# Entry
Amino acid sequence: MTVVEQLNRDWQRFTPLRRLSRFAFYLCAVAALVASLRTIEIIPEFLYDAPEQMVDLVQRMVPPDWSYLKPTLDALVETLHIATVGTVFAIFMAVPIGIMGASNVTPNGPLNLLAKFIFVTSRSVNSLIWALLFVAVFGPGPLAGTFAIAFRSIGFTGKLFAEALEEADKGSIEALTAAGASRPSTFIMGYWPQVRPAFWSIALFRWDINIRESAVLGLVGAGGIGVALDTAMSLLYWDQVAVVLLAIFIVVVLAEIIVTSVRTKLI
# Structure
């Protein structure tokens, strides 16, 4: 090819195959969006007066019924207990499973697959579904909510802990192994110092998430502030609903501040 032919040649960013693939992707995305909109059956009449309904709902919430503050705070304390105890239970269960799932710490294929299966099972089931299952086992109350939070958190905590172990530097591990250190000593002296910051970060982050998730478990009878919210909504006491929502918002913000502060000091 001569220089003139090269200069006259049209430059194209993508090959014809890539352009065809991109077009097919966009076409499938649009088709999926259209199918989804048709499936959820949006009723235009309900959309027209949605702003008016929202304004009316806010007007019913103002002013909040501050006499409902004490039962709200009692339920809020119960929510914090559910989130905290559930997180602790999850950590105790997730750490050994995370060690089992790290291929460099536990070089055993079947055990690695079993750990990953537990991770996927825990994360694929929503906390409300776990709550429904444990309400059927233990009955309504905070115990069911605590176990729901714990089993939901195993997959998240254990998977991230296993990934942190797999990303650990091999130099110190090989040095300890060459010196004749046992497997527990290698883990304590080699792996743990490297993954400790990640471990505390994961634990604090999960506790923060669990506070948010615990707030709605009461909607299915698993205790916490969700019970107060469900009661107020069922009776159409929107001024009491406002108190509950404000309490949830404040505790979530405080939890975020506490987690950020503690994480900064620990890591």
Q: What stands out?
A: The chain has a mean pLDDT of 84. The CA atoms of residues 142 and 223 lie 4 Å apart. The two ends are 61 Å apart (CA to CA). The chain has two domains: 3-39, 60-266.
